[in-house]
Design a protein that fits this description.
The complex is a heterodimer of chains A (114) and B (114). Helix content of chain A is 0%, strand content 54%. By secondary structure, chain A is mainly beta. By secondary structure, chain B is mostly beta strands. In chain B, 35% of the residues are buried. The chains are: A mainly beta (114), B mainly beta (114).
């Protein structure tokens, strides 16, 4: 398996533009997580899905952020409109079952909003 | 609410010396505890976990961690540090029986000095 695949690796966009981050989890993993990493706040859980259904989105900062998982092999995190304070590294992770085995993280998308 | 604390922002150790990266946790139930490592420009990689059983857990790359219930700690250790161990280390916890929400510590930067 190629692991958790995220795209793009880097994204630079202008304030006000829409940004879409993509994630392909490991096949057979039924949990998918979106995290944001910044120097100030460390790793923050934004939202997670179980069997494609959003379970907890309490970490989504505001209505500008939305996430979808239309099928078991694909998820998106969208920011519209983007702001400079959204600049961060966004990670997707997946895990099977109860998570006892730990998560597998993607390599992340570094977002810069100018 | 569950939480983890990593009291040291950075740990410096000479190559060949033993290393310890500290972690304490606070949960209302029984914890699952994890250590992850993050190399520059990469996602987090799973190192080891404690679920139940032996308090000394062995993981990847020669790392081990000791679960201490009375002190609510789960310190990461390695008998002999390598320069290549220099990275950011995260402690994480989830509660057994609960849903999948993992709480990560803020991270500790390990610097191994040649």
């Amino acid at each position: 398996d190629a692991g958790v695949i995220q795209s793009p690796r880097h994204e630079v966009t202008e304030m006000g533009q829409e940004v879409t981050l993509r994630c392909k989890p490991i096949s057979g993993h039924d949990y998918l997580f979106w995290y944001r990493q910044t120097m100030m706040r460390g790793l923050e859980l934004l939202i997670y899905f179980n069997n494609n259904v959003p379970i907890d989105d309490s970490g989504m900062p505001e209505d500008r952020f939305s996430a979808k998982m239309p099928n078991a092999s694909f998820s998106t995190l969208k920011i519209q409109p983007s702001e400079p304070r959204d600049s961060a590294v966004y990670f997707c992770a997946s895990s099977p079952g109860t998570g006892r085995g730990g998560y597998t993280f993607g390599s992340g998308t570094r977002l810069t909003v100018v | 609410a569950q939480s983890v604390a990593q009291p040291e922002d950075q740990v410096n150790v000479a190559e060949g010396n033993p290393l310890t990266v500290k972690c304490t946790y606070s949960v209302s139930g029984n914890p699952y505890l994890f250590w992850y490592v993050q190399y520059p420009n990469r996602g987090l990689q799973f190192l080891l976990k404690y679920i139940t059983g032996d308090n000394l857990v062995k993981g990847s790359y020669g790392f081990e961690a000791e679960f201490n219930k009375s002190q609510t700690s789960f310190h990461l250790k390695k008998p002999s540090a390598l320069v290549s161990d220099s990275a950011l280390y995260f402690c994480a916890v989830i509660i057994t029986g609960g849903y999948q929400k993992v709480t990560f510590g803020i991270g500790t930067k390990l610097q191994v000095i040649p």
